[in-house]
Write a structure and sequence with these properties.
alpha+beta; 5 helices; Pnp Oxidase, Chain A; single chain
Length: about 150
């Protein structure tokens, strides 16, 4: 992949707040349109992930690229290749659960980090449709592969 998605990797390193603001604005467009607008990012599916700020306690929303895997949703906290993980991942990891918004559907989810062969399988799927491997090289950290499992609480 080339072009705009890869340009974000450089921007994320130079100005870390840029990707957070873009993600928040993207999430607002998806939410306000009821999932009719901006649900794709260069061909990849986008969901809105609502977390609770681990420091502020406020509700936060981020647009996140995902892949469906059965009834699960798979995300990779790449932060566009920044060395630091995205705030949504830090918040999700601290809380353990969030709300995934897909169109008009709101789904309570809990996060499970994929390991071993499962991580490799899901990573390969992500690599096929996103610049995630490029982001990992720029970030100089292994990116987690996170499975969002529906909860019925």
């Amino acid at each position: 992949m080339t072009g705009a998605p890869l340009a974000l990797a450089g921007a994320a390193r130079r100005a870390p707040g840029v990707t957070r603001r873009l993600s928040s604005a993207h999430a607002a467009v998806v939410r306000r349109s009821g999932g009719r607008i901006a649900t794709r990012w260069f061909g990849s599916r986008v969901l809105v992930l609502e977390t609770v700020g681990r420091i502020s306690g406020l509700r936060r929303s981020a647009a996140v690229v995902y892949l469906p895997d059965g009834d699960d949703l798979v995300v990779v906290p790449a932060n566009a290749g920044a060395p630091r993980p995205p705030a949504w991942w830090l918040n999700l990891r601290a809380a353990g659960e969030a709300v995934a918004v897909l169109g008009r559907e709101r789904r309570r989810v809990r996060a499970v980090e994929a390991k071993g062969a499962d991580r490799e399988r899901l990573w390969r799927r992500f690599e096929a449709v996103t610049p995630v491997a490029h982001y990992e090289r720029h970030a100089r950290r292994e990116l987690p592969v996170v499975v969002l499992r529906r909860t019925f609480a």
